[in-house]
């Protein structure tokens, strides 16, 4: 992402173009999983031994790209399909295609739960769509005692139309989870948790049209900005969230045997 210094910024066309290239490129990526229409790759970063990039792709038959785009935007629906989510809400809007939001998610015990404050921006391109985000500081949303504040360096989705009834979804993320996580956690994320998460989004896409018909079917502020009732916020209120300014929680000694998986994850 091409931000300058400490200031928050709204991604421009070149940021989206770079993100799309990363999703579609194979160069420099190592395959970690490829089965049942789901593929996972990782890419270690030279400047950091801990913050790897992870990229996923799933073929979504019978889910049109515009439906999946709605699923990823609709925070009300997310509460139905994202079993790891503790809380999510939009904080405020910056432009017609950029906002700031809060998200917290449940980590498997004995790890502490994580949360984010991110600036999110989106771009429809015909029948293809992109949504990208990165972490920012907001004065009214400081780190909480009950969560570890994680940092999204760059995270996003690319939805590509394949034919009239389906699409391909790419998910690319580079997140510093904070805390010195044991290696087994990172491996489990790329080989087990990630494929399952992609399949969950796919299933959510199949069920969304029926759900939306019963839940405010005309309300889609990501498509119709005039419906957006979020308070306006200024970029000047935000700054980049850097990992080194956050408390580091050492969880490296936690053993895999003690990790509890919920029924959803087992």
From TrEMBL:
GO terms for biological process: lipid transport. Residues 25-210 form the START domain. Pfam families: START. Its main location: other. It comes from the Eukaryota. GO terms for molecular function: lipid binding. It is found in: Cell projection, Cilium, Flagellum; Cytoplasm; Membrane. InterPro entries: STARD10_START, START-like_dom_sf, START_lipid-bd_dom, START_lipid_transfer. Keywords: Acetylation, Cell projection, Cilium, Cytoplasm, Flagellum, Lipid transport, Lipid-binding, Membrane, Phosphoprotein, Transport. SUPFAM superfamilies: Bet v1-like. GO terms for cellular component: cytosol; membrane; motile cilium. This is START domain-containing protein 10.
């Amino acid at each position: 992402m091409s931000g300058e210094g400490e200031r928050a910024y709204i991604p421009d066309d070149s940021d989206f173009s770079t993100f799309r290239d990363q999703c579609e490129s194979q160069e420099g990526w190592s395959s970690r999983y490829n089965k049942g229409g789901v593929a996972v790759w990782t890419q270690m970063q030279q400047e950091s031994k801990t913050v790897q990039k992870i990229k996923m792709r799933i073929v979504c038959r019978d889910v049109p790209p515009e439906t999946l785009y709605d699923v990823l935007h609709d925070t009300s629906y997310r509460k139905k399909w994202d079993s790891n989510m503790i809380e999510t809400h939009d904080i405020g809007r910056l432009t017609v295609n950029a906002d700031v939001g809060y998200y917290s998610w449940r980590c498997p015990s004995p790890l502490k739960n994580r949360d984010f404050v991110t600036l999110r921006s989106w771009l429809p391109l015909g029948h293809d769509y992109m949504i990208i985000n990165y972490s920012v500081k907001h004065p009214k949303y400081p780190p909480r005692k009950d969560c570890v504040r994680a940092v999204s360096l760059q995270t996003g989705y690319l939805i590509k139309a394949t034919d009239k009834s389906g699409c391909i979804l790419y998910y690319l993320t580079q997140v510093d989870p904070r805390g010195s996580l044991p290696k087994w956690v990172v491996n489990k994320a790329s080989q087990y948790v990630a494929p399952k998460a992609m399949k969950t989004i796919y299933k959510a896409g199949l069920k969304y049209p029926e759900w939306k018909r019963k839940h405010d079917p005309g309300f889609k502020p990501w498509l119709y900005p005039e419906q957006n009732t979020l308070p306006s916020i200024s970029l000047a209120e935000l700054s980049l969230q850097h990992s080194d300014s956050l408390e580091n929680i050492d969880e490296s000694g936690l053993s895999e045997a003690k990790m509890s998986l919920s029924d959803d994850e087992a």
